[in-house]
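Protein in question filed below.

…
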Amino acid sequence: MIQAYSGEPPFAIFLKDFFRTEKKIGSTDRKWIRHFAFSYFRMGKSLPGVPVPEVLCAGLFLCTHDEGAWTDILPEEWKNNIHKFIPEKLLILQKYYPGFDAEHIFPLTNELPESMDIRAFSLSHLQQPDTFIRIRPGKKKFILSVLNQKEIPYRIVDENCLAFKPDTPLQDVLHIGKDVIIQDFSSQQVSEFFSGISPRTIWDCCAGSGGKSILAKDYFKDIQLYVSDIRENILHNLTKRFRDAGIHAYQLVRADLTMDEFSLTEKMDLVICDAPCSGSGTWGRSPENLVYFDSSHLDHYISLQKKMIANVLQQVKPKGYFLYITCSVYEKENEGAVNFIMQKFPFQLLRKKWIKGFENRADSMFAALFQKL
């Protein structure tokens, strides 16, 4: 199955299609097959030239901490140390593969910021990030009561953010979309950039599933909201999500923001641009990218971002704001975009932040807030 996969579509979709044709595989086996495959991808390119079955075993050794019948396929020393912490396991693995380098788990490390702890960041991909919820205004007491009553373990991250182990069945006990929003902790921190501004009109120009729009609505309350995306199916899902969230007054537009002739009927106080990007800050959730992403993909996204930025900035009012966001850790998609804006357009940078989510079992992101001169 791994050797048949070529990087497209996303592996989660590929896996669903595989299971659809292999109906004899039961639910328990599907769970383990999924874990086996993702453990392989989490090794990235740290063991070049090593056969797939051996990389798979190395991934299982590093990514798993409980014994099972499958541990019999591991070397005896690995099997006896399956419960150890990652630093100890790395030393054991390096005895078998002296060329192993944990920093090569993540691709294109030469494109990362100089301040990046490459080893720590690479190793963070050996575990799946947590699931996070944002508790909506006025719902905190009720949500905590439900979780405690159902004895569902959670971790308090900040005032309105809770973390859960991956695959926690939250949909069985919480009203997702109405009372809480499934939203990564780093994504929730974007609200820090709302402080000190008071927009009346907001355009979420790459709205996706609408998480940033709902965040803005909960933060600012009384705003005129505009949302757009190029994907028809995404906009359909967004309208359902808005309905669940109790958001009814908004304007929705299907738009290709790379087209020069695009324009809105009015200028905006705040434009939120969660730009299409490599997604490299989220690859703990989609580790197949550690194996299949290359520099040509990065060049594609950088070109796309510049086209979108040039068009979208025209929709900002004088003295209005532009919030640029990516879920990337590559410098050219982040600082590169900041430099592009400051050199080419009449905007000043107010603040920027690389959100190191990997330190908190979350995604990593970048955000920068500009004001039009």
Remarks:
- The mean pLDDT is 95.
